[in-house]
């Protein structure tokens, strides 16, 4: 009887989580308490002011992999590394115009880009998996940390326009 009750509770909890994801009722839990997340414009402004490079995420509430990133964003090493970055996330369903401007090899989610502090995309920063260039599987902790390290350690190329940050927001 106890086993049957446990099985029923487990089945109901799985159904509840699955129906929430299918209905898009639940945003991914990406550790908002320990990670300072920004929207697109405020994140670019923060990056320009702080000089920190950007780790830009495109996600969707209905995306199971996006929800699975929860374990990555609870990892102590990853959480510590976010302090060296400006973390921006974009919901593709709420901001399709921004999503379209980063649709370099498809509109899949999650997609991750590295940006210099002035907002320009790092063209040499991408995942090394064989399929989608800007995708990291939620089970690939080492690949995720490697990508973060590459973004943190990227040297911003010299620009003749020293006011590029100012020009972004005029």
CATH topology (fold) name: Glutaredoxin
**C-alpha-based Rg, rounded:** 18 Å
Instruction: Compute the number of helices.
Output: 7
Taking pLDDT < 50 over at least 5 consecutive residues as the criterion, the unreliable ranges are 1-24
Helix percentage range: 40-55%
Strand order of the largest sheet: 1-3-2-4
User: What is the molecular shape?
Assistant: globular
Task: Please provide a written account of the structure.
It is globular, with a radius of gyration of 18 Å. The chain has 7 helices and 4 strands. Residues 1-24 have low confidence and may be disordered. With 170 residues, the chain is of the alpha/beta class. It has helices at 2-23, 40-50, 64-68, 76-81, 96-101, 141-153, 164-168, and strands spanning 37-38, 54-59, 86-91, 111-115. It has a single domain, classed as 3-Layer(aba) Sandwich (Glutaredoxin). A 4-stranded mixed beta sheet has the order 1-3-2-4.
Task: Describe the secondary-structure layout.
Layout: H1 2-23, E1 37-38, H2 40-50, E2 54-59, H3 64-68, H4 76-81, E3 86-91, H5 96-101, E4 111-115, H6 141-153, H7 164-168
Parallel strand pairs: 1-3, 2-3
Antiparallel strand pairs: 2-4
Quick rundown:
The protein has 170 residues and is of the alpha/beta class. The protein is 40% helix and 11% strand. It has helices at residues 2-23, 40-50, 64-68, 76-81, 96-101, 141-153, 164-168, and strands spanning 37-38, 54-59, 86-91, 111-115.
């Amino acid at each position: 009887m106890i086993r049957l009750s446990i099985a029923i509770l487990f089945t109901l909890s799985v159904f509840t989580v699955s129906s929430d994801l299918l209905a898009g009722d639940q945003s991914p839990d990406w550790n908002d308490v320990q990670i300072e997340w920004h929207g697109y414009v405020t994140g670019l402004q923060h990056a320009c002011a702080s000089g920190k490079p950007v780790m830009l995420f495109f996600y969707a509430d209905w995306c199971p992999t996006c929800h699975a990133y929860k374990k990555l964003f609870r990892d102590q090493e990853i959480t510590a590394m976010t302090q060296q970055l400006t973390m921006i996330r974009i919901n593709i369903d709420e901001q399709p115009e921004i999503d379209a401007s980063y649709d370099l090899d498809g509109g899949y989610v999650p997609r991750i880009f590295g940006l210099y502090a002035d907002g320009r995309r790092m063209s040499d920063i991408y995942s090394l998996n064989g399929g989608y260039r800007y995708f990291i599987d939620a089970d690939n902790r080492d690949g995720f940390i490697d990508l973060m390290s590459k973004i943190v350690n990227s040297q911003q190329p010299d620009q003749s326009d020293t006011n590029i940050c100012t020009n972004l927001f005029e």
